[in-house]
Amino acid sequence: MVRVDTRGSGGNVSKPASILGRLGLSLFFLFFFAMGSLFEVFILHEFARAMGQRSWKPVPCTIVASEVREDGQSPYAVAVGYQYEYDGQGYSSSAYKRGYSASDTYSGAHKIVQRHPVGRTTVCYVNPRNAAEAVLSRDSLLIGLAALFPLIFVTIGAGGIYFLWRRSPPGEARPIAPIAKRTKGASKYAMAAFFSIFAIVGGAMFYPLGIRPITRTIDAESWQPMPCTVLRAEIGSHDGDDGTTYSVDIVYEYTFNGQTYKCDRYDFIGGSSSGYKGKAHVVEQYRTASNPICYVNPKDPSEAILKRGFHAKLLLALFPLPFLLVGVGGMVYTLRSKNTGAPFLGTLNARASAPASDPLSLLRPVDTGPAVLKPKFSARGKLVGALVITLFWNGIISVFLANTSGLMLIFLLPFIAVGIGLIGFVIYQFLALFNPRPALHLSSRTIPLGGAAELQWSFSGQTSRIREFAVTLRGVERATYRRGTSTYTDENTFYEMELYKTTSLAEIASGQVGFVLPQDTMHSFKAENNKIVWSIGLRGDIKSWPDVKESFEIEVTPAACGRQE
Amino acid sequence: MGKLSIELKDGKHAFAPGEQVEGRIEWSLDSNLRALELSLLWYTSGKGTRDVRVLHTHRIDSPGSFGLDKLSFTLPPGPYSFSGKLISLIWALELTCTPGDETVRQEIVVSPTGREILLTSVPGQGQDSRPRQSLQSILGVPHASA
Amino acid sequence: MRARDNPFAADRIERIRYRFAGTSLDELLTDLEEMNYRAAIMGPEGSGKTTLLEDLRQALEGKGLRTKSLFVNDESPLTEPQCRRFLSELVPQEVVLLDGADAIRRSSWFLFRRHTITRAAGLIITSHRPGLLTTLVECSTTPALLREIVDDLIPQAHAISPALLDDLHNRHKGNIRTCLRELYDLYAFLPQQ
């Protein structure tokens, strides 16, 4: 008999967490909490500094110097100078922004210089506590939004420790998903807020990685192609914690409407990444090209690009999508979900005073016309569920992996193994999406015991991949036991009959089989705790691929009235 | 001493679905009763929590301390009486009195075959795959022949 | 073996009454009265909390007290609207018996605790952990208890070796309920005698 446990307790008793186990898990969650808190403190500190700068006084100033300087140490430094008066005293400054030294790209530095040409009167911000300190551009407050991201880790860490130590007396059987269930029980709004962090982070990443480069790529289709001169073409090398990354650094000059401009934008994504060969090829092409073409924005000729059109790098737009999907999906699901079932009210007598369902309803005259059978869970539903869980788990583990080595890595191994297993499961469900899909028609919605019926099937998709196809009729007892706070469900298959089996492609693609239900057995029966369930199972074996496996419940009614001899 | 009894016509205890159940009830109790109730019901027994369903109830108010009455119920098309490994469904007539705890129950079989439907287990689907012989020796039960 | 004949069928197990060790039902009732009928029955899964609660219910009703019961489990958690509805229907003379107090939301629990102080005659709960109400009794099991229960349930012809039962008790960490469910499975495949 197949045991189906609806909780992790009882028939599938999970061992109560030992103190050592709990301490181990606490360390795991403490790590989450500590990392998240550290980042949070750092971001909040920067945010506080930016907020502090909002109290600096805006004062008119005159730009006296403004140019892009390429020197050995900084890629493209903005050399800007301006003069201002404060409290009747004159000052001069060369600070563009607090902490700013240079831009990585010529375009970035040039844009700043363009906004602050020599002779222009603009506004600078003066530190009221030290009038000699001033800037042209204040720190951005957007860093405050980044404060939400580490909160995910702080919440997981603190929540994990809380629920780990909150209730676990020895010998207690624990639910399968304690955090999810407990949080949902505590407050669906708290859960929705948790998911909103994913949505905000995903949305915040989606703009610079997705929306902006894609819209600019589309816009660039109308930019004018102009010949340009390559002034410098080389591969930029950037050393980071994860190793060295490379970028295409090309500076070129072009003339538009009689004016000469300089630019260094290669494409709209920019940045650096691993992979040297591809970039070296690009740099070599432009180094040796006699008259390369750049594309100039007619609305702002200082803006130009060498590579336009859709290319593989634009797929980076997909990266924030899982966060967005998990966040928005989680919020919608959590806010819409309702608790199912009601607590059992009443006495503890064995004889129930109010039956919850009418198991005889299926015996009343029903529509006996043909029926289209539908499986319980769609393939897409299974994939989405698997994906959500896998993204969540592996997203968290990858953060640790990026910053871990040695002993800590060994500690993470079990979690990595689970993550790999989950990825495998997602791949399995994903591959199953491309399986041929069966459509089933039964000649009658209800079949009496001893009665005959005809089942028709047809497959859509690549049916030729199915090597062997079988149809099985199955009858199952299902008993649910509720006692205390536990629920257990067990199953026993009392009838199984293979109705059809074939390896013929034509028969697999579409076919039919007639069958007669046995007479001396039990019809479909549904009460609150005990059920007899009949189903038709389909199995299609596919080599090196997830098999087609679907199950469809059918209604079997009592035989026509009268005694059988 | 009190006595409640249910007697079925011709001693018949097995009925086909839709058939009429006929018989009589008899009571003889020390004290005057407020009411007697005869119910036709089914209930489950097995590994799951019990389900109970009362189909018909025939109530007799102020029945006195003794008497007899006819009973007649029409059975529905189902569910059949059956027994599997996990669930048994049992039909019964139950006579109770108020006040008091006196109850008498008469089981009947509702089935087109005249016998309780027996459900077995498909080989290979059983949770316990240990050979039956060793199972019996653990339990100290004499080995049954195949 | 037919389900109805299985000595470990659910309805037979539910007829087992709580077995006291070191105390008695009368002593518990006395303690309960001293606690103004506000107390908790504590213990791990399958240690008899629900059984004891049922025994107490019958005893309280035998003493002339009215009771009102509520079961909660993880499949059917108590929502706040359900909780409020239940409490609004309470009568001051009723003692509330709440099975699974630690499975309900904290906010619902506070509501229960507060409401039953003035608007009910008492509140007796079962819980896996301490702290919700003063503990009346802490349930626990032993291998000897399992042997005793099994002896009552099965006919002598099908006696089970004590070693098997002790091993069962150990494997299920003292959860009598799951021990009995495993015994059900063992018996379900016995040939008809």
Please provide a brief summary of the model.
Chain B has one helix at about 130-140; strands at about 5-10, 15, 20-30, 35-45, 50-60, 65-75, 80-85, 85-100, 105-110, 115-120. Chain B is mainly β.
What does this structure look like?
The complex is a heterotrimer of chains A (565), B (146) and C (193). Chain A is α+β, with helices and mostly antiparallel strands and 565 residues long. Chain A contains eleven helices and 23 strands. In chain A, the strands form five sheets. In chain A, strands 1, 16, 18, 19, 21, 22 and 23 form a seven-stranded mixed sheet that branches. Chain A has a five-stranded antiparallel sheet with strand order 4-3-2-5-6. The longest helix of chain A has 35 residues. Chain B has 146 residues and is mostly beta strands. In chain C, α5 links the parallel β3 and β4. The longest helix of chain C is centred in the first third of the chain and has 14 residues. Chain C has a five-stranded parallel sheet, sandwiched between helices. Chain C has two domains: 62 residues, no CATH class; 104 residues, 3-Layer(aba) Sandwich (Rossmann fold). Chain C has 193 residues and is of the alpha/beta class. Chain C is elongated and about 55 Å long. Chain C has eight helices and five strands. Classes of the chains: A alpha+beta (565), B mainly beta (146), C alpha/beta (193).
Topology:
The complex is a heterotrimer of chains A (565), B (146) and C (193).
Chain A: E1 3-4, H1 19-53, E2 57-69, E3 77-86, E4 89-93, H2 106-115, E5 121-127, E6 130-135, H3 143-146, H4 148-166, H5 178-186, H6 188-219, E7 224-227, E8 229-240, E9 243-256, E10 259-263, H7 277-288, E11 293-296, E12 304-305, H8 321-336, E13 344-345, E14 371-373, H9 379-402, H10 407-433, E15 437-442, E16 446-448, E17 452-460, E18 466-483, E19 486-502, H11 505-509, E20 510-516, E21 525-526, E22 530-542, E23 548-557
Parallel strand pairs in A: 16-23
Antiparallel strand pairs in A: 1-19, 2-3, 2-5, 3-4, 5-6, 7-11, 8-9, 9-10, 11-12, 14-15, 15-17, 17-20, 18-19, 18-22, 21-22, 22-23
Chain B: E1 3-8, E2 14-15, E3 20-28, E4 35-46, E5 52-61, E6 66-74, E7 82-83, E8 87-98, E9 103-110, E10 117-118, H1 132-139
Parallel strand pairs in B: 2-9, 7-10
Antiparallel strand pairs in B: 1-3, 3-6, 4-5, 4-8, 7-8, 8-9
Chain C: H1 10-13, H2 25-34, E1 38-42, H3 49-62, E2 66-71, H4 80-88, E3 94-99, H5 106-119, E4 122-127, E5 135-138, H6 143-153, H7 162-171, H8 176-188
Parallel strand pairs in C: 1-4, 1-5, 2-3, 3-4
Helix pairs in contact in C: 4-5, 6-7
